[in-house]
Amino acid sequence: MTTTVAPLSGTFDIGGDLRVNRLGFGAMRITGPGVWGEPRDHKESIAVLRRAVELGINLIDTADSYGPHVSERLIAEALYPYPSGLLIATKAGFQRSGPDLWTEDGRPDHLRSACEGSLERLKLKRIDLFQLHRIDRKVPMKDQIGALLELQREGKIKHIGLSEVTVKQIKDVQRLTPVATVQNRYNLVDRRSEDVLRYCTENGIGFIPWYPLATGNLAREGSPLAKAAAKLDATPAQVALAWLLKKSPGMLPIPGTSSVRHLEENAAAAKLELDNSTMRELEE
Ligand SMILES: NC(=O)c1ccc[n+]([C@@H]2O[C@H](COP(=O)([O-])OP(=O)(O)OC[C@H]3O[C@@H](n4cnc5c(N)ncnc54)[C@H](OP(=O)(O)O)[C@@H]3O)[C@@H](O)[C@H]2O)c1
After folding, report:
1. Helix or strand or coil: residue 276?
2. Closest residue (by CA) to atom 11 of ligand 1?
3. Which of 26, 50, 70, 263 is most enclosed, with most CB atoms within 10 A?
4. CA separation for the pair 247, 32 (Å, rounded)
5. pTM, rounded to two decimals
6. Which has more pLDDT, 159 or 3?
7. Does residue 183's CB lie within 6 angstroms of at least one atom of ligand 1?
8. In the chain, where are the structural domains located?
9. DSSP symbol at 83
10. Are strands 87-92 and 101-104 parallel, antiparallel or unpaired?
11. How far apart are CA 158 and CA 146, in angstroms?
């Protein structure tokens, strides 16, 4: 297979100035079960990250809470010193107490120490895209964004992104700061964030759909995409990703996997172009 396939997905300028290939990689699945602890196969997780870069992927999404800390540590172990042009986007805003347990924490002190921990683990001087994992309802929004703005003034982060937000919340945040990206759950069978996607597309905000494969359900045997995939001589996962890429020029899918084989399959979606009638059929 072509080695550097990801550039075929096209490019997007995050925050207007950091160019990435649109098909990225989500590094949540390289940790242990329940996004907790070490991965079952450390060697494979390292191989996935290195292969992602070989495939031309230069947007890697992670978070301090994946592991916690494990995903960021593995990224540095596999890829540091980083190739030029690699954008590692991380997030803050959750505390972890066990497998599958997530507690929002948007207190400014927490966001600051999470950012400083991420900088250290990732061996970075600056985080190019720092995403607020959730807007914590227990903390005034302006205090959470204020903490990020302070980190930005100190040069610790470049662009600010949001996750799981409504159009109204994006507009509220935009009164305080430009928003470079929004990361909401979105895939062919869950399009509840359609209005957010539309707003992002119209306003030059990168849209990073999480669960792009519906946690793998769109990729597995029996996928609702099996028929379309057979017609296109592709796999269901590739059709799910090609559908996303075609949906908006600002769409930046980050499929997650712990396997090199799945990574290669997913990356090859970059060269699959769906026509308008296939798009319509898939959306019916
Ligand atoms: N902002 C947020 O709140 C939020 C929430 C969740 C996730 N995320 C981010 O979004 C990224 C993507 O989400 P995700 O990883 O949870 O879901 P996903 O990409 O929809 O699906 C990942 C799952 O699908 C399987 N898979 C991947 N490629 C496959 C293939 N070609 N064939 C068969 N199975 C395949 C993986 O298993 P294998 O490991 O066996 O391949 C894994 O279990 C995450 O990695 C993370 O960076 C963000």
Report:
1. helix
2. 26
3. 26
4. 32
5. 0.98
6. 159
7. yes
8. 6-283
9. P
10. unpaired
11. 14
Closest by alpha carbon to 20, among 74, 60, 47? Answer: 60
Can you tell me the distance from the alpha carbon of 128 to that of 88, in angstroms, rounded to the nearest whole number?
A: 7
Distance (Å, rounded) from C-alpha 120 to C-alpha 114? 10
Q: Does domain 6-283 have CATH number 3.20.20.100?
A: yes
User: Helix H segments across the chain?
Assistant: 42-54, 70-79, 108-122, 141-153, 167-174, 194-202, 226-232, 236-247, 260-267, 276-283
Distance CA 72, CA 64 (A): 7
- Atom 31, ligand 1: residue with shortest CA distance: 262
Residues 73-126: pLDDT tens digits? 999 999 999 999 999 999 999 999 999 999 999 999 999 999 999 999 999 999
Tokens read off for 92: 């803050």
Which ligand 1 atom is at minimum distance from the Cα of 217?
Answer: 24
What residue's CA is closest to ligand 1, atom 45? 26
Mutate-to-test residue for ligand 1 from 131, 211, 261, highest number of ligand atoms within 8 A of CB: 211
Residues annotated as part of the active site:
66
Nearest atom within ligand 1 for CA of residue 28: 45
In this structure, what token pair is assigned to residue 164? 């799981």
DSSP line for 228-260: HHHHHTS-HHHHHHHHHHHH-TTB----B-S-H
